[in-house]
Amino acid sequence: MSSRAEAPEDAYTAAPFVPDHGGLTALRRAAADCRGCPLHRDATRTVFGAGSAHARVMLVGEQPGDQEDRRGRPFVGPAGKLLDRALEEAGLDPADAYVTNAVKHFKFTRAEPRKRRIHKAPTLREAAACGPWLAAELAVVGPELIVVLGATAGKALLGSSFRVTEVRGTVLEEEIHGRRERLVPTVHPSSVLRADDREAAYRGLVADLEVAARALAQNTGR
User: Fold this and answer.
1) Are the C-beta atoms of residues 184 and 211 closer than 8 Å to each other?
2) Are strands 172-176 and 179-186 parallel, antiparallel or unpaired?
3) CA distance 155 to 12
4) What are the pLDDT digits (tens) for 41-62?
5) Residues 152, 154: Cα–Cα separation, whole Å
6) pLDDT tens per residue, range 161-175
7) Given 35, 73, 92, 204, which is the most exposed site by the fewest CB atoms within 10 A?
8) What is the C-alpha separation between 110 and 163, in angstroms, rounded?
9) What does each C-alpha distance from 58 to 13, 49, 147, 178, 209 come to in angstroms?
10) How crowded is residue 162: how many other Cβ atoms within 10 Å of its Cβ?
11) How far apart are CA 92 and CA 161, in angstroms?
């Protein structure tokens, strides 16, 4: 029987692959063998989160891109470089952040064999299937603040009614995977690269990240 008949879409979940205990190293090792949804079939590898288990801020994006899939680390492509620059300008040290994605495998389409792989947005069901990994990362890192990068990450964390344009640059307090979290939503850095007015889009991203930096600073002062 073909492996493509494994499970119906509403049964996709990474839960059986998530270890009951262990830190980020154990999670990363287990995630490498995740078969919780069909995205693993075409992706090169699982791209798990990266950064310190003691990071004060967690940045959550959509999914790995082409370069992330090839190199096995999140945010190492053009969008990641732009994000690092924006973080530094906003007063946040990229080295002190934990970065991850709502979906851990690269979903793409290709017009012809051997042609460039083109990003394809994951479905809500695929993001939900990957939710147990994100929940485990949140439990281990316990960040003081989550920066939500874009609509897919927002819907994965806050539900299908999330609209990044309505809440970007604000501090939200919500229960996420059983934990009370503070979140600052903003656009995904890849959208800045696609914008007609890239400079204006970049300034908007920095302004949102400055809100996150102030929220962290206020938390330190408590």
Assistant:
1) yes
2) antiparallel
3) 17
4) 999 999 999 999 999 999 999 9
5) 5
6) 999 999 999 999 999
7) 35
8) 29
9) 23, 10, 6, 17, 12
10) 18
11) 29
